[in-house]
Write a structure and sequence with these properties.
Length: 701
Amino acid sequence: MHLSISTDKVKVFTVATEPTDGYARYVRSARIYDVQVTTLGLGEQWKGGDMQNPGGGFKINLLRKAIEPLKDEQDTIVLFTDSYDVIITATIEEIVELFKKSKAKLLFSAEKYCWPDSSLTDAYPEVEGNASRFLNSGAFIGYAPQVFALLKEDIKDTDDDQLYYTKVFLDEARRAKLGMKLDTQSRLFQNLHGAKNDVKLKVDIETNQGTLQNVNFLTTPAIVHGNGLSKIELNAYGNYLAKTFNGFCTICQEYLLELDEKDLPVISLSVIVPMAVPFFDQFLEGIEKINYPKQNLHLLIYSSVELHDADIKSFVNKHGEKYASAKYTLSTDKLDERQGRQLALEQAKLRKSDYIFFIDGDAHIDDGEVLRELLKLNKQFVAPLFAKYHELWSNFWGALSEGGFYARSHDYVDIVKRDLIGMFNVPHVTSIYLVKSSAFDVLSFQHSEYDPDMAMCASLRNAGIFMFISNQRYFGHLVNADSFDTKVTRPDFYTLFSNRYDWTEKYIHPNYSAQLNATVIEQPCPDVYWMAIVTDAFCDDLVAIMEAHGTWSDGSNNDNRLEGGYEAVPTRDIHMKQVGLEVLYLKFLELFVRPLQERVFTGYYHNPPRALMNFMVRYRPDEQPSLRPHHDASTYTINIAMNQKGIDYEGGGCRFLRYNCSVTETKKGWMLMHPGRLTHYHEGLLVTKGTRYIMISFIDP
């Protein structure tokens, strides 16, 4: 017969020797459901030395001592759970009610595996269906006299508690005397190891609050235990259990760090460049824009890529004096990635840094507040969500395969697309992350099978350090280094299709978009429109590509590049086809030229625009200084000035004969757009000094 129990007669105990991330999660879950827990063992040492997972006998001995004063209290209930891999999901009243329904005096959680002694399997009572047959020591509940009687045998600190309890349970006489049962249908306790197909996370679409259901018995267990090899699954479920969401991310607002501007943490800023990446100049601009006192930053840049060596040296020479310290290692130092990352970590320890902030070369910072915002989240390890622009490829994995490699989680897409906003405990992070000094000693990049990132994440998982990814705010993105061809001249220019966002940022004029809505577009001559289109970088890179290729035509009428082999109005030029950029340039016309054309020549729509002739022309006084009057074989023509008059050349320009109107003060990166046939007969004016480059397209011939 069970007595009526008031909640103040329920004593809850756990054991933890140090406040790990898992312990903090456990304490939070208890607080959320107003479960008052007494923690045993904090600050104590035990013979085994593993502070995250103290020996079972150590736990038994602590618990026995703690409940001895309660041993004769018939109306007191004792609940014991592990801490670092347990989440409470119900109130103490609900827990007690589930216990009472079991009709047991001592109820243990049950699991799928007979551990640690599988030879005892056949000694266990049989169970029906998908029930869990074997005792698990991670959680149990019982009346105080029965619990104390359970613990009366002597046990060494280093002995196994699960084996201890198993032997008691398998002794039928003792089992009957103690009124001892197993929660085989997971009504109160849910052990996760081996139960992946037994449970389902149900998330409320309005609040994002989660509940874990045992689908075999349609139960909602109150205490969830990530026993054995199920820690990653527990972490994933834990992102939604214990009211981590309530229409918004509640844990994102908890335990925040208030930054004291007079006493800011010292950060080791570790830039890691293990592979060639596009737009490295823009990457370094992002590093410089980090809004944090440089005197609190120790900068170390590691690179194994010759392509980036000069930019790194230039950056440190220009900005290094502002930092507390600034060093770099280059490709000539012959360090591999593991050594580079390890060097960064050792430097952080040497500098006694409070944190190390790793940023890989593919992670472009767009918001300079990223470091401050990560610090405020007050975690041992936290990273901002970075993804490839308009892609699902990101800097985290939501789950792991059995071999420790990538697997997609149920919420991965929602997190990457920011349909679900919060902070999530994940098993793998790369590219950009902040690590607190308390984790330095467990951080390792060494592994016989894993790459350095995977090795690091494995070391943190094994140490029980949670890796959080936050998508609460957009801080930056990943560039796509796939198929980045470093053998070509100015390789960034070739990446429009793989990195449209960064390509646009680098190569399209900052005033481009304003022109699409401008009331007036400048017309230096009738129906000749003058618009900003590309940056100096576009011009410089494309000129460099053409000059490196060097196959300028001879300016004669014979041209085997053309169908028929004849050019009526020849120039010294190189076609985009010759340098492998024809398809890219047609995309450029579609994305950036066509909208301006539709803006100025109202009513003409042709998408995508068609251009058989896209070429760069070179004018020199001693080569071809000018071009005779002619019509273009186009519906409209664009002419982009690729260098600067008065600096790179003198003279030059374009004269429209019908209107007796000349454009001579051309601007680098600006485009002339004019009709091709019939109305705009024109000529190229004489270049008197230097070299003039223009980029021509005959559109819709």
